[in-house]
Every structure is written in structure tokens, then in C-alpha cells.
Amino acid sequence: MSAPAVLLEPSTAAPALAAPSIDDRVEEVAAVAGEHLARHERDATFPVEALDQMRSTGLLGLLVPRRHGGLGGTSADLIRAGIALGRVDMSVAMIFVMHCQQVAALVRFAHPRLRDELLPEIAAGRHYLASVTTESGKGGHLLTSQTALTAHQDGLAIDRFAPIVTGGEHADGFLITMQSPGCASPQDVSLVYAHRDQLEIERSGDWEPLGMRSSHSVGLRLTGTVPPHHVIGAHDTFRTIVTTVFAPMAHLGWSACWLGTAAGALSRVVKLLRSPQNRRRADLGSELLLTRLSRARQRIDTVHALLEQTRKTVEQTPDLTVPHIQLLLNGLKITAAEQCYQAVDDLVDAVGMRHGYLKNSPTRLEQSLRDLRSAALNYSNDRLHLVDGKLALMDSEVRLD
Amino acid sequence: MDPRFSDALVPFLKFLDGKEIEPDAPLRTYGLDSMQAIELLFALEDTFEVMLPDDAMNDTTFATAGSLWEAVSAAIDAQHGLAGDAFRAAA
């Protein structure tokens, strides 16, 4: 029997008796994120307090195997964390799941020496990882790079500009896509790891976005040299890393964050509507209000069901490159991006101008809507639909499992 | 590998730079991307008058010229039966 394609290493030791659960750690991070949310949202600054809490609770090591000192978590744990953090702050949730996506790639593909160096540091909360995959002039193509690594006697030289690096100014290390040294085409892509102190980092431009304001996704120019064992997998194997770890973890993790954001928004609206002061003022029998609440809830439950189904399929499927599995994963991302945004948009209509449109409403729908507007753009739904159209043509049986 | 197979591949491999297509030629390195895979598939199906099964639609099949030819060749054998060798020989 083949091993599941995304399987994190099994745990080898029982947790210490008094160790807090993963859910408890997530709650601690969520509480701190909530405390500082308004300021980071206003100033478009990075949620350093929430990151510090991820470090001190060990949550940064969620996907690090226990034998390397981590929590030995699973993709189900990651999804639960993404939903719980997304209920409070979508930026914090996305920062966390994107870090975990990098960790999963290291666990599965890094050279044993690099794994032994890095994973204990991540588990100890000393290493927050950022991903450097964006590049000017490639139109969002994840699987290509325009800039080549250069091999020389001291190692591999990196000189790379990336227009959007979430958390780039606070990361302790970077996973960077570059053309392989001496490669034949832009499709020969390698993934390399660089410590912050191995790089000169120059920031470029400001961060003043519509939503996701505290993700602080700035442009960075990175230059430096790393040793050969910092190549993740081997040269030219980035596509395999994408199909086995990056894409599944991204789609599952992002969808969890978006779902959490929509669920948090609905929860705040329902609590407001049911509050003793409001019960007397609002007409909770309004058919329009009830229908809109029903629609929002329906969208949220649909995304949750699809997310769970996709997670189980990913865990049980040896080859994730077959069209009907790719379609399921891409469909999850597209559906979650559309439906979570629509759910919050329904809620804006449901509660109207004061609680749906004003910044100072406790529903925070205004921020949730702006944050969720990024979901369709974050690896563009338009691009995924084109890919899915081609994939649909390759699956004439229309296999469902 | 059948010369007609190589001829069908060439238009999809913009980074081949005139090199001979060997069985271990990495198709993605030479320029085949997932958006073009379906056009290549149609070209091969037209050339060899076969239908590739859905089971062959994965990264392993499209990894190298050799792995793709193996899938095409298996489809020729399956769909042209004993005439498969003659069919290939006529190519």
C-alpha cells in the first residue's frame, strides 16, 4: 500500500502530562491577537504580539514532529487552528498557516542536516518562516522563476526581488523559489532556505492595502549565499513539493482561515441580534433577516463540509497529481474564497448600515469583508478556473472518489 | 520512440533548443506546462488514433518523453490490438 501523499511524521513520544493542548495554545494566541487587533488594523502593522505568543506557546512548531521537539500536529490540527485564529483575525491566521506550510515542506523534503538544524529551532519558537514565491513579471505563476541561483565555491548565491512577502520583515528564515543553477528553462525551479543572517534584506515600497492589513506583506530584495544543503528536496523538484505539500497545505490552510473569518462574523452578528438590548429593538421575525442569516450559515457549512472532505481525500490519496484530486483541491480554494466572502456580504445586508458598514460596530463585518476580498486574489480564482477547465477535459469519467 | 511522437512533442517544448528528444527528456523543463498538457494529449491522440485512459493523466505520465511514449504505446497496443506493431511500423 502506498503511503498517503501528505503525511506528517508520526509522533514517537507521549506529550508531557501537564502540557497544554494544541487547542489551548491556539486560544492563547487568539486572545492576544484580539487584544491588539484594532491597532494593527488601523496602522497596517505586523501582529508582533501574536507572533510572540505563537513562539512562546510552541505553536510555531505545530507541524514539527515530536522527535524534533515539536507538537507533532496533523493537517486536521492545522485546519482547526486556522479556523480558530480566523475567527479573530484573518491576517494572524494566514501568517500562521503559511508558516506551517513552509514547515511541512521542510519536514518532508529538507536535507536531514537542514532538518536537524532547523526543526528544533522552529519547535522552540525561535524560527518564524516566510515564503518567497512572488516575482515581478511572471503573472503569479508559482511554478516558474525568472531569477537563477548561482553556484560558486562558497555555496549558492541568491539575488532576488519579491514584490509581496507576508511577514518578510519579521521572519527568521525564508523559503525562496529560484531557477536552478545552470537550468534549461524558467520551469526548472528549486526551493532554497536562507536564514535571515545569511541575507541582506532591503525593503521596497509601502504596505497600505484594502484588507489583510496586519499581514504586512512588503516587497523585499534578498541577496546572500547559502550552503548547498539548503536546497529543499533537490534542484528542479519544486513542482513535486508544490503538488505534494505546498498546494494541498495552502488550499486547506487558507480555506480554514477564510472559513474562520466568515464563521466569526456570523457569530458576532448572531450575538448582537440576540443581545437583550437588541432583542427588543430588532425584528427577529423579519423574513428577509432570517433568509439572509440562513444563506450565510448555509455557505459556511458548505465550505466546512468541502474542507473536511478535501482533507480526508488528501490524507488518503497516494498520488495527488491526478486530475480529479487536483480539481477537488482547486475547487475547495475557489469555493471557500467565494462563499466566505459572500457569507459576510449577506450579513452586511442582513444588519444594514450601522452594524454592517461602520468600522466601530462590534460585528467587525466591515473589516471581515475587506479581508475576505483578498481570498479570490490570493492565487487568483480566475487562473485556477482556467487550470480546472483543462483538468476537467482530462477526466472524461468525471470521477468523484 | 516513434518519430511522429517526437514531431508531435516539439511544438510544446520551447526550451528544447534544437536538441534531440531522448526518452529521459524532462518535458516540463523543456517547456511543457499543465495548461498545454491537454493540447499535447489531443495531438498525440489524433496522430496515433487512440484515446489515452483517464488513469494515465498524472504527473508521472507527463514527466519525460519516455514515460509519455509508454502511455501512448500502451494505448496503441490496447486499442489497435495485434495490429499495434504494424500500426507503429507504418508510422
Commentary on this structure:
- The complex is a heterodimer of chains A (401) and B (91).
- With 401 residues, chain A is of the alpha+beta class.
- Chain A has three domains: 107 residues, Butyryl-Coa Dehydrogenase, subunit A, domain 1 (Orthogonal Bundle); 102 residues, Beta Barrel (Butyryl-CoA Dehydrogenase, subunit A, domain 2), CATH 2.40.110.10; 156 residues, Butyryl-CoA Dehydrogenase, subunit A, domain 3 (Up-down Bundle).
- Helix content of chain A is 51%, strand content 13%.
- In chain A, strand 2 and strand 3 form a beta hairpin.
- In chain A, helix 8 packs antiparallel against helix 9.
- The longest helix of chain A has 37 residues.
- The relative contact order of chain A is 0.12.
- The N terminus of chain A is likely disordered.
- With 91 residues, chain B is mainly alpha-helical.
- Chain B is 49% helix and 0% strand.
- In chain B, 33% of the residues are buried.
- Classes of the chains: A alpha+beta (401), B mainly alpha (91).
- At the A-B interface, helix 6 and helix 11 of A face helix 2 of B.
